[in-house]
């Protein structure tokens, strides 16, 4: 009998073929079979995970009592059909989790029936009737393909969770009529979005890539990682490389950082669970983990700093960051993250969520300490920075300074702007986005026209406007090509100081700003110092707005108020939306403006003026026929016909007001004098607070690190070892 010998090559080939044909184990994305075993055990034990399970099961049980509704799409964002499809994908996912944890087949049947309903509907759909014709690509279920990709990210996980409860006929129908067409529509059907380095591309690549893992389409995974032609010019990895700085700062700012975090973390978790050899969480020295920490650090009192197109109510308790914190804790066991998880007060029903729940049950949380930080911007960290200065000497304070890049299409023309926060509230404010998110009655829930005509314009921010024209003349492409420079940043026990500059916002104009959050010795108080220098090659009108939250209390100069007739401050570039409520030209010396914030504290900006600065008091709301804008207050410091000017001011928190007890303390500014001088690269600010004289010295040398410097001031010698020095001159 002749024995046929099979060559090793053919054995290897057959093994590879069998491997390629093998069905993937389910579930195999964020939640895996290994997680399920531990999660099932946890729902029988008292603790946070069981509590979260019981709460979600009750919610799911109530919702699945109702008939399945899969409507023909017709509404834009916030409309009935939009919201119904959004609710559907969230419910499918949550119900799929219930099936895995309980093995109760009615949960799998519900998800199955909804998927089959979508499989009947989807082949009949053309592009959405409310699509944005001149904007991003449309979806079919939704008005934009972004929402379609979000639907796929959730729905593919729901399908994965109930896969083993389906028969082959149901699998074929759901995949052939629904999931594969959606994945192909979002990838090959819309290459401009799929290959785009942008949050829309992140959602699309995440959805298609996870679909590839579930439906055994490895080519989809490769295309999601490296773009459609697998060149590496686009795709998920390129997004990680370009959209985040080395410190984890996201190019579009904290609000979109939060939004993009979910697909980044979700797809990365799926990659880690399916192909751990890719070491996705180690990519770029762990940039995704850094991004999770950065999202936390770019918040104050639980809310994200509202730069660029930001909805100001979004904060660290958003579900995107709940998933992010859970993933980061599972990977690092950093007990400081448990402090954030505890504040979020949400446990996600995943393997990572279980680790967080058990750690919290065991009281392992440690305080998360927020630090003053300069987050470098740009993929190499060399396109300016977003600077956060913090102090907790007299209540938790934060000063945000923005010598950062444009931030793509969601960026605002606000180079070198700043914001200030104290005792839980926004004090010096930024408008954020002009939008009522998903409120269809307000422009379909989309960005309002005033987002372009006001919110993005420079005058809506706290930075210099030249000749009533926005930075880069409002051209996004020019803005994206020209970032400010972070000149220096330093934090010590004396406070934090930073400087930034830009000479491309206006032709022939150099803008430079230094901001410092200074701790005053012995007073247990802080002040914020602002030095804004403008040097131009010809004369201009210079405006420096300051937008504040609160009620104007007092000024030390007379205001000519416009009580009978209001007119806009200007005609375009945001000025047309500002009512001119009053005007004044203070005499040379100190000009003070005091307001009261709802936190019960007074704030005074004291300006050192030479008698040429006029003040224009404003209220937002002019040329706003649909009442889309919030009626917030501010004032503009203006000088005309100058080629060089330095704006100098000090912001001082002071006093207390408790209306319930009719109690008022120190409602008047306690800054009684302010002087400014320079010695070479040193800026010297003498300020008297509560009768005590302080000298603040800032070393603005161009050296990478400030060296020890000796200087003389009013016949006394001083030594400055750092960028920032604070000296007590007298105690009268």
Automatic annotation (TrEMBL):
PROSITE patterns: PROKAR_LIPOPROTEIN. Keywords: Lyase, Periplasm, Signal. It comes from the Bacteria. Residues 1-24 form the signal peptide. GO terms for cellular component: periplasmic space. Residues 68-292 form the Alginate lyase domain. Residues 379-632 form the Heparinase II/III-like C-terminal domain. Its main location: periplasm. The keyword Iron does not apply. InterPro entries: Alginate_lyase_dom (IPR008397), Chondroitin_lyas (IPR008929), Hepar_II_III_C (IPR012480). Pfam families: Alginate_lyase (PF05426), Hepar_II_III_C (PF07940). GO terms for molecular function: lyase activity. It is found in: Periplasm. This is Alginate lyase.
